[in-house]
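Feature request disguised as a bug report, sorry. It would help if multi-protein outputs had a clear separator. Right now it looks like this:
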Amino acid sequence: MRHNQHLSGAIRVPRQAAFTLAVVLAVCCAGTALAQDQETRVFRAGAAASNVTPPLGVSISGGMRDRTAVHVNDELHARCLVLDDGAARIAFVLVDNCVIPRHVFDDAKELIEQETGIPAAHVLMAATHSHSTPTTTHIFQSEPNTEYLPFLVRRIADGVRRAVNNLEPARIAWGSGDLPDEVFNRRWHLKPGAMPENPFGNRDDEVRMNPGRGSDDLVRPAGPIDPEIAFIAVESLDGRPIALLANYSLHYVGGVPGNHISADYFGVFADRIQELLEADRLEPPFVGIMSNGTSADINNINFQEPAPGRQPGEQMTHVGHAAARVVHEAYDGLEWRDWVALDAAVTELEIGVRLPSEEEVTRAREIMAAADGPEMQTLAEIYARETVLLSEYPESVPLWAQALRIGDLSIAAIPCEVFVEIGLEIKETNPFDKAFTIQLANGYNGYLPTPEQYALGGYETWRARSSYLEPNASVTITAALMEMFEELHSRASE
């Protein structure tokens, strides 16, 4: 079942039913009113960043075993941008976190609607996917920090509220640049006989994630990359930078100790683009934002070369600075617009779950019973635990797909770790001039491979709470997004 909500920035002239002269007069009056409205309408933008750094001692997610924070390498933020075309508003929130469940985002959206009037359907919230952040949902052997969640909800809502407070007349532009040297497909075909046994006791996978650098067993990557860094920039009418929202299809980079809190290269980019745009210490403060594109099968490791020697945090700094450089180089060529129409749509889908069979659950319980201690150690034990827990899931789950329009730019939002092929398809087939996708948006529903990639197997398809949607889920979600984009495009032409 689908439930659609939308806003429209289009101006509609009411039909007049009368004599020919009356019709002519009505059209003339409507044209005059439209011209006057075009002259008086004002586009506005506002931004703010809320610090969401947790206390030390919290659980850190991003691994198959739990970790406890003992140090903050760099602060975490919820970075917020609000756009207003005079008739409608949309809001973006990018949170420095690995994955965030829907109920956390929903609670924050409820506060935002109460306090600012921006409807939930017009708010896109997403996690960046840093693997050095507090646990917010049940994932592998990490449990959510229940005391942190209300704080996170409040800080997200406050960030949007402050961004609304900062709204001012603005101009907007969007552009892109390519950074191919930092993205690599992490799923590889191997030579015959080189595939290791998977956690379920068989060797039927055709690809392996992260197969090892410089291995003689490498044959070819299982998919493409997307080198584009797309971005939206907003400035005050006198040219003062307000915010910049970028999008790059790259997994986290990492490199800090496992028990340190860090925003990863997403935070580095935000700081560096501020420096390059000479936007430090402005009032209101400039907000740089990096969102994660479709990077479920993409990381920062060139498996055909040996690992370079890096100090802790050096690689994420390198990537963040490289991404900021590409954006800054494209900045001077932007075409600025004093006004654009905003529009949005959202669809709630019901997606099937890959539940384990009774035999698989029985086998999993036997593996767990034979394990030493309460913490699972081997892959077989860890996935046995996932099998048992997943057996309690419903047969289907609700999932939000969202589409936004900013002028002739379209943005898709999907609550999954999305394979890069899906993002490339959305860019190529949507009806707008420009498009990109923000993943892990409005919730968390695990990995989203294409049916073809699902058939190849590998880590991203292994059934767990991190990968449980039915094999054709990406087809359903992409079709829903295309339907919404067509709707937005049709309304834009009215």
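(second protein starts here, but nothing in the output says so)
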Amino acid sequence: MFVWVKRIMAVVLAAALALAMTSCTKPENKVVKSNPKVIFVTDVGGLGDQSFNDAIWTACEDASDEYGADVRCLESNTGSEVRSNTEDASNDEPVVVITCGKNGARAVKRIAKDHPDINYVVIDYTVDQPNVASICFREQEGSFLAGVAAAMKTETNEVGFVGGINSSSMRRFYYGFRAGVKTADKDVKVVKTFTGSYNSRIDGMSAAKKLYAQGADVIFTASGLDNTGVIKYAGLKNFWVIGSDKDQSGLDSNHVMCSMTKNLSVAVDSQVKAAVKGRFKAGTVEYGLKEKGVALSDKAGNLNDDEEEAVEAWEHAIVKGQFTVPYSKSTYADFKIPKLK
């Protein structure tokens, strides 16, 4: 009987020891990963500009659906707000912060070095830092096509260009446009003005009024929210406008002849995907006609057959590298009217 008691006590002790070991073992830590954070800091004007900011935000939302990212937007009305919003975004543990324009580039240039573990994307400007990807477009190529269409459409032999803030990006728009006009008809005159902003419909209307008074009956506008003022004035005075960044024919299909668009979805999608999947690379990526980064869009169907054929022919020539579109004062000075092959 004593043996049986010893056996029972041994079983009880073993069970107690197992229970003790179980109670002392720490439970496994379960880490619930939240969706990766992508933050877009707008340029001045914020959302609702129906141009550059809106186009980038739409691209961000599309990328969110594709890669399961938590996409947020911080709107800016001034250059200082762009900087403070970029700082706030950097402190929110994102996988990538997306900015654009001169203000965004300035902010990232100052802030990125203090946040080496954060990825940054700057659109339309170049920032040379190890955690920054710069997305640039050869706006001059799409603008060349806009110039061809404008020169063929004008009845006054005078067309206009409205830029926002005079910058290297705006000069790419302008000199590409001017080269296209010259190529299609060297007798057509180009007049230009800059609004000095990207967030004022009133400035856009004033600029359009100035160029219209000089005789321009087709105006190419590349000035953010100011574009809406140019288009509004075109409706009042009945002349043609070429929009920019996104197809703006929806604003006035009777007066927006076509638009020089940027395929921001391609650029933003690739950067968000890389950041989310841990494959982000710093450096500069450039998009032109060949990469389908820019295009001349005519959703309203306001280009006639001859204009469409000419635009397609010159687009083919640029893609094939038959000539280089000028993008600055000096490259325009050296530009010779090319011949289609």
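Even a blank line would do. Unrelated, but nice: The chain is about 45% helix and 20% strand.
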